[in-house]
């Protein structure tokens, strides 16, 4: 990353908080405080649930949310990003603890933090986007399934002998002990799940997980229900500040722990930047990837000092932060302070929190993070993309995430090479070739003011889709009808297709129409197989730019006054 003329290099590393405080007002503080308290309360049951499901204590999850949320909000590159423990790490953390113990987990987390810090400071923050969508969806689906499977015993009130960590062994143990289900625990868990799902329909601004947590805890305390709680399993949550303890670093463990550290760093980087992009879309801003990764790295270095687990950006909490009124990183700071107040004041009450309620919370988290609609979209793609997704998913479930990501990336790289090789052609230039190309050229075409033409040149595969997002970030620059010229787009994959779908959705919401034209054989076949026609309409996919301009004229003539006014405003502003 290079600095602009007259710009000091340190400005490129300035946290978003510094930028926001320059014009901060009292109204901003009010909104950020309300949002921060709200998302802090939402994070409380999630942090405890993630800590327990990961094989550590509930307070470890809370400490992670406090430290991670505070550091990333102070030093990060996103305005409304909320960080802390997330469901994506439950399986990884549990596996690391099983293999290397709690001390191994703390060292892995710090190593991952160093890796992320190096990625950010070296300007390689954008490199994590080179992960194809089938791989991301594959291990997300696998993690969601594993999380759900680990919570069945607490949901049913079962005591599994040995508590198997392997997926099929766990299912076998659950089936063998199903008859020992505790009716009281099952009733409490079912009621908690119903509250989480149904209460937001009555009061959309009140998080269902908070209602379930309060109701479940109150039920245990008032009616003396004999169910497993945080108090019976962990002895409660200690009141007060966490104990600071720097883990012992053993150089001989660097190589054995390096694969796990790389997996944690990679997943934390991907999830953090995805969450930051979601925040950008909501607030109309653009995050700084390198600053964000550096802050996430520092948070992961600091979290183990208080006994915490890996930190990353949390998409659901970031969305809740925005919906609650947040506009600056101050809300993330308030979120961390809210959790700190809970630890200092209300920790003794935590002993009544039932594990059945936290299991219900994690069931909902597992479903939401699974991106099951995306899975259906993957199945509409070609065999190669489906194979990458399936192998990544299966390995995540039956082996471990490290192996799944490694194999998935290797397969994606081979697929990338294959698709690039298919774009190379050698042929003689004939009279027919020249005549066939005339409708595609722009030089002799009259482009009316109600049309903006975009083009994609080269393969549109994973790692390149950010170029389209960057070019279309400000849709006010675009006319009512946008023609995307694909004449020189040689190949496309699932990640590229997802980018086109997102562009079409954004243009539609802004009142604009997207037309595609000139797709070559591989992109044309891919778009047809993936049923992209249903998103854009068959009439809006044209063979060449000449036909696209004719279709644009037809659409414009049918515009209402709003469309015509948009076209006139666009013309005046671009004269």
Describe the structure.
With 575 residues, the protein is mainly α. It folds into 2 domains: 26-372, no CATH class; 432-573, STAS domain (Transcription Regulator spoIIAA, 2-Layer Sandwich). The protein has 24 helices and 6 strands. The protein has helices at 16-21, 26-53, 58-75, 90-121, 133-156, 167-176, 183-202, 208-223, 230-234, 254-283, 289-302, 315-323, 330-345, 355-369, 372-378, 383-398, 401-422, 431-437, 466-471, 494-509, 521-529, 533-536, 545-557, 561-573; strands at 83-84, 312-313, 451-455, 481-485, 513-517, 541-542. The strands form 2 sheets. The chain has a 4-stranded parallel β-sheet with strand order 3-4-5-6, with helices on both faces. A two-stranded antiparallel ribbon has the order 1-2. Strand 3 (451-455), helix 19 (466-471) and strand 4 form a beta-alpha-beta unit.
